[in-house]
Amino acid sequence: MADVQVDELLHDVPVRLPSAAQVRARGGRRRTRRRAAGTVAAVAAATAGVLVWAGPPGGGDGREVRPAGRQGGPALVVDGMPRILPADEVPGDDRWHWRASEEDTEDSPLPRVADGGSCPDSFRGRRAPDHVQYSTAYYSNTADAADASASHRVVSYASREVAARERAAYERELAACGLTYRDGAEPHWSGTATGDGARLHVTVQQDGRWLSVVEVRASSS
């Protein structure tokens, strides 16, 4: 599996979100957590020749900074409720046949990326703004799973501006962890994590004060 790229495995796999009826049916599986920890820190990274950052002048003062390219996507919220992906709509399901975890999912505030082993620097102490997170983890039982896993986090912040700052911080961590932003029909980030060499495929969407992050991780071994 070491020579198989996550992007190749996920090529042309649509990321579809469930209908409002499906969301309500899954309402009982959602849980809400609030969390704040650590001291304030921020790291900005850029990969010359690969990553292009665009944003308003003076973006370093906390205003929104994001990669150039199309940022649209399906709505994240229906009738005021977050839309969490069912297992069969998570990228890579055609290969890994995801199953949603029945256990509670840890509230992992952005800008943490994947787990501590893959992108350890993103787990540095940092005070997270007030937020409400809805999340689900997915796992695979296939013979070639190779420690493949996935997660979907939908986070609600106090305002669009706060969400934009958290998105920018998260995307900086993605770049610092070795991922590259790839524009196109399905914009996403992908690459080899600096921590453990795992292959990551990440989709980030923002809708007002809401952020959605879908992460797929496959071991390099």
Observed structural traits:
seven-stranded antiparallel beta sheet; alpha+beta; 4 helices; 221 residues; single chain
Detailed description of the structure:
With 221 residues, the chain is of the alpha+beta class. The protein is 14% helix and 25% strand. The chain has four helices and eleven strands; from the N terminus they run ααββββαβββαββββ. It is globular and about 45 Å long. The N and C termini lie close together (6 Å).
Itemize the secondary structure elements and their pairings.
Elements: H1 6-10, H2 20-25, E1 53-54, E2 66-67, E3 77-78, E4 81-82, H3 93-96, E5 99-100, E6 131-139, E7 149-157, H4 160-176, E8 179-182, E9 188-192, E10 199-207, E11 210-218
Antiparallel strand pairs: 1-2, 3-4, 5-6, 6-7, 7-11, 8-9, 9-10, 10-11
Helix content: 10-25%
> How are the strands of the largest sheet arranged?
5-6-7-11-10-9-8
Tell me about the largest β-sheet.
7 strands, antiparallel
Element order: H for helix, E for strand: HHEEEEHEEEHEEEE
Average of pLDDT = 74
Number of helical segments? 4
What's the gyration radius in Å?
16 Å
- What distance lies between the first and last C-alpha atoms, to the nearest angstrom? 6 Å
Count of β-strands: 11
The portion of residues forming beta strands comes to 15-25%
Structural class comes to alpha+beta
Q: Point out poorly predicted stretches.
A: 13-71
Shape: globular
